[in-house]
UniProtKB/TrEMBL annotation:
InterPro entries: Universal_stress_UspA (IPR006015), UspA (IPR006016). Belongs to the universal stress protein A family. It holds the Pfam family Usp. PANTHER family: STRESS RESPONSE PROTEIN NHAX, UNIVERSAL STRESS PROTEIN HP_0031. It comes from the Bacteria. This is Universal stress protein family protein. Residues 15-155 form the UspA domain.
Length: 287
């Protein structure tokens, strides 16, 4: 039986609403194209959520003369109009229903609220080389932990030829990993290759067994291979997972997202931090 045959086209567990964050950054077009491609596969609906760094703009307005402030406001308005035109044109070309939204107010609150009504949220990795990519401190982390939805993180550089053909799963028997696998089922059922990866934490501790998760996936119509990898010398678990994912030519990594504490400052688990900051392939994160 071809994997996914019993599931495609029947509306079960498909991503029907894809929310993509839009801004004026260099990678906005890449995120848009990816979101539209996902929507085509699942016969879905794409919501383009335009959010930019409003706090910085507001601060600048306070320091500027009225005429300069009006000119800058006009520039921001034009940027917003251009972003909308680009999104709607891309959706039309893709043959996908695209819905534009440009909410006001705190960006974290807006992204979280709109994200909770989506099946998956497409966000961009932080990019220190592109000022337009900065939205707010801890923007991605806050959406991952507050939205209750999986976040597909698009790397800051590189071409994305495919997504979901070869899938790697970071597995450690945790609640977050289990949630990530369940959230990723629409992609896993269509994948040609799925590998469940575990990392041995130290010499005296075995990696978590993958028998149960493999059996679970099999019942969901997903056949997965399993590998246990020793942690690379001098590198953390996150880097070991990324090395393994790249070695099997994965085009997306599915992983649980961990936070040791919550508050004004996110204190992330080491693996989550590594994936957020250094991954060169798309990562589907769930908390």
């Amino acid at each position: 039986m071809t994997r996914g045959t019993n599931f495609e086209g029947n509306g079960i567990m498909n991503w029907k609403t894809i929310l993509v964050h839009l801004d004026n950054s260099r990678r906005c077009e890449t995120r848009t194209r990816l979101a539209l491609d996902i929507a085509r596969r699942f016969d879905g609906h794409v919501v383009g959520l335009y959010l930019v760094c409003q706090d910085l703009a507001r601060h600048l307005f306070e320091l500027e003369e009225p005429l300069v402030r009006l000119a800058r406001e006009e520039t921001l308005r034009i940027s917003c109009d251009n972003a909308r035109a680009a999104f709607e044109h891309a959706a039309q070309l893709a043959g996908v229903i695209g819905e534009w939204r440009a909410p006001t107010g705190a960006v974290h609150d807006a992204a979280t609220l709109h994200g909770r009504h989506a099946d998956v949220i497409v966000l961009g990795q932080d990019d220190a080389d592109d000022p337009e990519a900065f939205i707010a401190r801890h923007f991605v982390e806050n959406i991952v932990f507050a939205s209750g939805r999986p976040v597909l993180l698009v790397p800051r550089a590189g071409d994305i030829g495919t997504l979901g053909e070869n899938v790697a799963i970071a597995w450690d028997d945790s609640r977050e990993a289990a949630r990530a696998v369940a959230d990723a089922l629409p992609v896993l059922r269509r994948a040609r290759f799925v590998e469940v990866m575990t990392v041995e934490r130290n010499r005296n501790e075995q990696a978590p067994a993958g028998i149960e998760i493999a059996a679970y996936l099999e019942r969901q119509g997903v056949r997965a291979s399993f590998s246990s990898t020793p942690r690379l010398r001098g590198e953390n678990t996150g880097m070991t997972l990324l090395e393994r994912a790249n070695s099997v030519h994965a085009d997306v990594l599915v992983a649980g997202a961990y936070a040791h504490s919550r508050g004004l400052e996110q204190v992330l688990g080491g693996v989550t931090r590594t994936l957020l900051e250094t991954s060169t392939l798309p990562v589907l994160l769930s908390h």
